[in-house]
User: Fold this.
Amino acid sequence: MKHISRRKFSNTIAQGIGATALFSGMPIACGMASKQENNKKLGVALVGLGTYSTYELAPSLQETTHCYLAGIVTGTLEKAERWATKYELPQTHIYNYENFDTIVDNPDIDIVYVVLPNAMHADFCIRAAKAGKHVICEKPMAINVAECQAIIDACEAAKVKLSVGYRLHSEPYTQEVKRFVKEKTFGDIQYVSAEAAYFSNTHPQQWRLNKALSGGGALMNMGVYAIQSVIYSSGKNPISVAAQEFSTRPEYFKDTDETITAQFEFPGGTIGNIMTSHNTNVNRLYASGTKGWFELNPANNYGPLSGRTSKGEEIKFPHKRQQALQMDDFSKHILFDEPNKVPGAMGLRDMVIVEAIYQSIAERGKKIALQLS
Ligand code: NAD
Assistant:
């Protein structure tokens, strides 16, 4: 394959989609008519081709029914070339961070999926909305409540749909948990507990350890899953939270939280407990009710998940890529007006809780009242 310079990579696309072929030898025509061929399939552009896009989202988009990989946004020429070849993307559907806004002119891109470091979510989601594209924003939705609200406002103003990358709402184990709660299969839930943690020992320069890019450590990364778990396994939003922070490797976690625990009160007296960490491996959800208990372990990894209940039953479903289910669900929301399983308001609610947890820690574990609708 013939290579071109990075400068040309930036300039060529910026000068106009459909101009000179970027990568000669590339199968330019492939995918051009894909929207017509894939009648009712929405085109998705992934913004940021890191680990999650590479190993989860792009492979999932090979399994989706209602959407397909139509474009990419990357700052790296080598990735652009590799992805174009692998997924047969036309050069007209490849953008960089500078010319991203010209995506407005591409009718094949219906959904922009922002998969960048957390501090970049708001900027790219808002720009996507202004380009008239529906938006999926990865979790955490942004790095503070104000940014989450700005994303929601931009999508409302542009009349585009918005979802957050909480993939579990589309997978069957989580839906079973929600059914247990709704149907009171285990009575009234009195206690919920969730741990979402993994041991991190990667390069100290990674963006997750840089607060300016991540917004925070374990809580921003895995903690939102634990928050989600206690909410859907209790069926309620919390009314208060108190939190504590622990650090055993301060030389590694210089800028971000390593381990956080938090206790929640829910309406009706349900109590919740979470732990999130970048220093240990735990991935679990447990709920105890007046008629028994249920547990998922693992509860929030990419699956297969696993679960059991006090009735001696195993919770078991066939495994499918969660991200394929998630993106198909959002596409069905757009195409067929089906419910949006993860609206922007959910990401914003979780950021209100995240901010309250950080406030509680700053105020030495003080109980912070939450007013969530
Ligand atoms: P990653 O580090 O593997 O990829 C980040 C991408 O952003 C890279 O392609 C990088 O080149 C690009 N980038 C652009 N500007 C950058 C900058 N200034 N600094 C660093 N990288 C920059 O990260 P990831 O694991 O793919 O995570 C990306 C997003 O996806 C995060 O918001 C993360 O929370 C989310 N995520 C969600 C899940 C999930 O299960 N829903 C899983 C993993 C990641």
Remarks:
- DSSP finds eleven helices and 15 strands in the chain.
